[in-house]
Amino acid sequence: MPVYTSAEQLYEVLGEVFDRLRRRPEQMADFPGSNLVIRMRFTEPAAEVLLDGRHPALEVFFGPRPGRADLELSMPADLLHEIWTGRTRLREAFFRGQIQTQGNVFRAMKLADLFRAAEETYPQVLAEKGFDNIE
């Protein structure tokens, strides 16, 4: 059974994670202002998140958005959950082909701080939203 039962549930959790990260920009110093647009496409449930690093403050959009991204990442939502709860390492997921990419993967290095900060914040958000029983 998937971790998230709907795109709305996934957006609720990710929305809170990214809101908290925006309030602590020093934790993701490399991405805002990087001039990168990253699209994350999820399956199970089908969802899409666009991270816009073209401005000094991180912008996040939920749902399909027109336009091209510099890097597109596609993965099951469960995989992001596994990464952000520390059960799967991001690097291993890339090298095993669990994350499909389009664009220059080396530019994804600008996401490292953002993902590390999300790994710290995500479990707290799950617990506060009552999703701490999600395996």
Strand content: 15-25%
Task: Report the strand count.
Answer: 5
The class by helix and strand makeup works out as alpha+beta
- Contiguous helical run count: 4
Q: What's the structural domain tally? A: 1
The whole-number mean of residue pLDDT values reads 90
Largest β-sheet summary: 5 strands, mixed
- N- to C-terminal distance: 10 Å
Provide an overview of this structure.
There is one protein chain. The protein has helices spanning 7-22, 77-84, 90-95, 112-128; strands spanning 37-43, 47-52, 59-62, 71-76, 100-103. It is α+β, with helices and mostly antiparallel strands and 135 residues long. A five-stranded mixed beta sheet has the order 3-2-1-4-5. A hairpin with a 6-residue loop joins strand 2 (47-52) and strand 3. The protein starts with 6 loop residues before the first helix and ends in a 7-residue tail after the last helix.
